């Protein structure tokens, strides 16, 4: 106690700050950092969840490198990212841009766009899964069949299954991105637009010279946020393909689903942990690169 | 005051001693299984009659969702917690024994020679080095479900007895719309459901092959028989056009909706089919090959005593194991869950073997094979992909079969290394 009394006000403040910080720090150490470290450790071991853990050295990583399924899954994961992120960015910007100008039923429309974001991904994935079925139960194929167009195997195809699975995932995330974009648009001072009006410039110039540059921080946030989301895509894929998870022929399988399958169906925890470490590194590199690219000016 | 305290302490001690004596005479053991409504109900009933016969033993049942089951068991037993008697899938036995989670059943109570003689032969997979580690209460097998209303509508008298008849019957049951889209399948297919068992243990054998050799450690279906079996299977969709593997999302859903004439599934489906109103269905044995060869696939869940059970809890666990592997328990399991008795003496009773629903399954047990899986879902995936490569990528069946055999062998080698 006497030690505490001898401290200066500044030091006392530090002591108190750390006292309050201990709780979240401890929490994070126990539920985040310890499991992360443990996962990295397991990635160098052989463990079936029941028996002992045995050291395996780099075996899991070598196996990963030589596993054709991993490279397929790796490519799929990036396909989700490369199609999903730009698509959802452009779409959500267009919606937000026009919604911002609409006064008629503004809040109703905004709510409608936000609704999918609040819906459970599992429920949504199952509804879409049924939409995609063939005749006689699939909505889309029944429409196609009724106008005499041949059916499309949305989910049972090695080429269009991935975009089919991605579509509802993009739709689900749209509402959130629209809201963020609208907040970004509102944050642009109206004086810029007034000045542009006085100068008599067209909407295209206003859009490209004022709106988009000033939305840059918003876009950085959305790109990073949605990239991480698409790289970690799981629930939509898993629920739309539970019969043949990530199929057909691994054409929709993302990395997270492969990890899940290796760990909880194959009980090969070491191999699953090695995949997790790879995913972690990908996420880290992509996020850092995006932050750097989009912030540089 | 001091004296008062002393008496109090003494009283406390005696009551504690009494309490301990009480627990000594009444043992509580724990039983774990995964959650499946009918199984839990059946087990509750069994525990009740067991406790009535053994008033000094209480059994506490705990159940978990299937997805968490293995993780919880693995975490609990080494920590000295969890079950004394545990339920596990037959394919997990090696893992459990190796991890020292379960102990062998005492030979004086569970005489291996007697078990060999009394149980269906596939139960011998539970014997390692001459010692039984686990025993099932019930077993499951496959059979052909058929929709009686659709059969009548198509003018078909009886379910197909052979594979050729199966194709003809399926043709008669298939319906197309004006554009040629299938709106009713003759027979459901899907390697993702039970068909991988039907192909592996039934069709391959019926075409003259042996799917695995060396105690299921070596893939052997990459043969002429395997190819013939694969072609028979893919021809249903590609040549005869009597089925679609993706029809109505899941085979059992199509059958339940009355949009499928026939459906191959396990005995565990009986309960949920009974719940479908308006569906009139029958069961037949799986069709035989042209030369009369029959085969079936059987799987089961077993119960075992964990390494946590020691002393009097061990004795109680042995008694409980003995009861849940008894004839009486098997009949309860059949009546409540619809799973088949693991002993011919119970299963093959006049009433059971001639039961219109259970009969075909029970008769199938007599010639059933049990695949020893290293990793069932991964091995199933190879079958799914084998058919997928043919139907989606137009790969030559022989090549696809070869790819599947090599990939599965790789998985087996990794597991048994």
TrEMBL record, chain A:
Q: Does the keyword Transmembrane apply?
A: yes
- ABC transmembrane type-1 domain: residues covered: 74-290
Has UniProt tagged this entry with the keyword Amino-acid biosynthesis? Answer: no
* Domain of life per record: Bacteria
Alphabetized Pfam families for the sequence: BPD_transp_1 (PF00528)
**Localization per Swiss-Prot or TrEMBL:** Cell membrane
The residues that cross the membrane are 14-34, 80-99, 111-131, 165-188, 214-234, 272-294
Give me any GO biological process, just one.
transmembrane transport
How does the record say this protein sits in the membrane? Answer: Multi-pass membrane protein
Q: Name one GO cellular component term.
A: plasma membrane
Which Gene3D superfamilies does the record cross-reference, listed alphabetically?
MetI-like (1.10.3720.10)
Q: Which UniProt keywords apply?
A: Cell membrane, Membrane, Sugar transport, Transmembrane, Transmembrane helix, Transport
The UniProt entry, under InterPro entries, shows: ABC_transporter_permease, MetI-like, MetI-like_sf
Family indicated by similarity: Belongs to the binding-protein-dependent transport system permease family.
Known PANTHER family for this protein?
Answer: ABC TRANSPORTER PERMEASE PROTEIN, INNER MEMBRANE ABC TRANSPORTER PERMEASE PROTEIN YCJO
This protein is called Multiple sugar transport system permease protein
Say which species the protein is native to. Roseibium marinum
Automatic annotation (TrEMBL), chain B:
Task: Name the Gene3D superfamilies for this protein.
Answer: Periplasmic binding protein-like II
Domain of life, per lineage: Bacteria
Record's signal peptide: 1-26
Q: Report the CDD domains cross-referenced here.
A: PBP2_XBP1_like
Q: Which GO terms describe its biological process?
A: maltodextrin transmembrane transport; maltose transport
Which InterPro entries does the record match to this protein? SBP (IPR006059)
Q: Name one Pfam family in it.
A: SBP_bac_8
Signal recorded as keyword: yes
Can you quote a single GO CC term? Answer: ATP-binding cassette (ABC) transporter complex, substrate-binding subunit-containing
Q: Which GO terms describe its molecular function?
A: maltose binding
Q: Which UniProt keywords are listed?
A: Periplasm, Signal, Sugar transport, Transport
Q: Which family does it belong to?
A: Belongs to the bacterial solute-binding protein 1 family.
**PANTHER family xref list:** MALTOSE-BINDING PERIPLASMIC PROTEIN, MALTOSE_MALTODEXTRIN-BINDING PERIPLASMIC PROTEIN
The protein in question is named Multiple sugar transport system substrate-binding protein
